[in-house]
Structure formats: structure tokens, C-alpha cells
Amino acid sequence: MENFVVAIDGPAGSGKSTIAKIIGKDYGLTYLDTGAMYRMVALYTLKNNISLENKEEIVNALEKIEIDIQGEKFILNGEDVSKEIRTPEVASIVSPVAAIKEVRVKLVELQREISSGKKVILDGRDIGTVVFPKADLKIFLVASPEERAKRRMKDYESKNIKENFEEVLASIKERDHIDSTRKESPLKKAEDAIEIDTSFLNISEVVDKISSLINNRIGR
């Protein structure tokens, strides 16, 4: 199984990263969290007080941003920002940052470069439609906004971050709107992607479904 690519797309909180990590370990695939890459760019704008309205400054800042991924560590300009990129502050601005064409071009190139010649599993919003339109397997995960908000709340609670459920739900709905209506690489299901609704499934059940699909592809 060489140059095998599994693309998992879906909205925020649909379970992409959690599922992709497990599948990656089970099948010896290199896991690439593309959402974290966009979060690092968003974090850089926060740290440097760059306004979201100033797209030109964000684009210019790309030359000063160095992204590295070491296992489950996310390195921004030499600093481990694995925890910082998961805060509500970053989550609230990542979609507008990711909607900027130049940001997407830079990170898509990096995603392809990192994945070149490897067996990989990537999750994001445009993996199956833009990054790897010829991926060996494309999955599109969905879940109701309410269920995704509950998951996000549990995640925040595990990190001792206090958030209001209604605000988290509103943020998720806003991200859905921005991601699905943006001009550059909008969130959408690839025509040949297999949709899985995770609203009423636990992690093991989703992993089993995707594992079965992978096994069919590789002839197990």
C-alpha cells in the first residue's frame, strides 16, 4: 500500500481529527491535521495584533510564518503552540483567516509537500475537493450543530476552559456559514465522498465504518 491517501472532510466538531488519528495509527498512515495549520496562522495574527480586516497584512505575514509538525506537536516559528491553537479565541477567527486565498494556496502546497510519497490520512474541509481530489478514499463526516457544540464543550472542559454552550453553538453555526460560502475552497462534499452522520454514533462505530471502507480499498 504505497501513496495511499485517505481524505476526511467535514464541518467543525464532526469528529474529523479524533477519528483520523485513530485510523492513522491502526493502518500506519501519516496523519496530517490541516485544520491545525490554519489555526497556527490565525494564532500568529492574534499574537501580532493583526486585524482580520487587514488581509494585505495577513498575506504579507505569511513570509514570516514557519510551520512544523512533529508527531502531535504543532510548532509555529520554533515554538510549541499545540495548546494555544485550541483556544476559543483562535477558533473564533480561524475561518476568516482560512478564507483568504493566499493563505490557502500556501498551506495546500505545504500539505501536498508533507504528504508526497507517503501513506497519509488528512482531515479538513477541502481535502477531497482541492488538496487531494484523487484521494483513494474520501469521507465526509457530518453531525448536527447541537451535537458538535456538546463535543466542543466537553473538549473545553477537559482543558479547564469555561465557555457558554449557546455561544459555542453560535460560533459553530457561524463557522459553518463562513466555511461553506467562502469563495476559496468552500466546505463541501466531494461527489465521490462517502457521507457518515456521526450525530448518534460513538467513536468506535465511526472508526469501524471507515476501517471497513479502507479494507475494501486495499483488499483485506
From TrEMBL:
It catalyses: CMP + ATP = CDP + ADP; dCMP + ATP = dCDP + ADP. GO terms for biological process: nucleobase-containing small molecule interconversion; pyrimidine nucleotide metabolic process. One of its GO terms (molecular function) is CMP kinase activity. The keyword Kinase applies. Residues 6-215 form the Cytidylate kinase domain. Coiled coil: none annotated. Keywords: ATP-binding, Cytoplasm, Kinase, Nucleotide-binding, Transferase. It is found in: Cytoplasm. Belongs to the cytidylate kinase family. Type 1 subfamily. This is Cytidylate kinase. The lineage of its organism: Bacteria, Fusobacteriati, Fusobacteriota, Fusobacteriia, Fusobacteriales. The gene is cmk.
